[in-house]
Amino acid sequence: MPENKTALVFKIIALYAGTVIGAGFASGQEIMQFFIKFGSRGLAGMILSGLIFGYLGLILMTLSTSRRTGSYADLLPLLMGEKLARFIDLVSLFMLPGGLAVMLAGSGAVLHEQIGLAPMTGAAAAAIITAAVILGGLQGVALVNMVVVPVKIIILILVCTLSLHVHGIKIPQIDPVAGTKASFYWAWSALLYVSYNMIVPVAMLSSLGAHVPGRAGALGGLAGGLLLGLLGLLITLTGLAFYPAITGCQVPLLFVAGQLGSLWQHGLGLLIWLAILTTAIANVHGFASRLAPRGGWPYRVLGLLTIAAVYPLARLNFAGLVQILYPVFGYAGLVLMLALLLAPVRELRRRRL
């Protein structure tokens, strides 16, 4: 029985939000580095990034559904031409398993800190759950996100709104960058933040093109991006209210939750682990759907082999993996973001020829 439009839109929103709300987003660390440190200008930057997320989601799903794409390999040539598409494709084939390694190491680190599990045991827990989800195919990936993503969002909203209610909304005056151009850095930071987060959503959402009608896809992509902006805005407001106390924290929202009590701290720890898990699933799905766009057992086998091959890398230092791999994510994501921003112009020129 085919899904109704509302269910499809909700599925796309969950998949889009689930890939972006990773450990960095859920911990508040990404938001602090890209937005909170700019003070009131950071709020403007987050609003801009939310609008860009919404626009990119709309364009990405419109192109994917109109071309009935099965993976990002079907989409990239439309965005940037064959030569550059082959290069980004090659980079992505390394980055997606690399992102999985980061998430498995992150799972080990979080579960070790929260409940004392050995790091490799915590990594194994994420690997086993990810494997089980991949065995369920695209429907399994979508189902997990439709269940887990609302939980992540609810925890984020509760921690932030309760903290703001208790502590009050305060927007300190911060001028982090010296020089006459400081007033423009918040906008550049917003662009960098979106580009940094676009690799995995492109891999995830482009795999839906052959399974989703155009209107539902476009609406889901737009709504998912705007939702990310609203959540980011809430985290930015919360971070500003606790500034500068959070500046020395590795996990700023964990400090914020601690002001509400230990129960909220544990709840936020669960949120961060769930964020790691959904990002791990998205990385494996993006990689497997690229090599087996028609799904089925080839997709499942490739997904399981990828998890098995990457699992030993979880022994590496989590922070070290992030420092090595995430700058590459940012540069490749910048190319993708620019290509998506210019996609309507490119499509218009193609139709005129």
From TrEMBL:
Keywords: Membrane, Transmembrane, Transmembrane helix
High-level lineage: Bacteria, Bacillati, Bacillota, Clostridia, Eubacteriales
Protein name from the UniProt record: Transporter
Membrane-spanning intervals of the chain: 12-36, 42-63, 84-105, 117-135, 142-164, 184-205, 217-243, 263-285, 297-318, 324-343
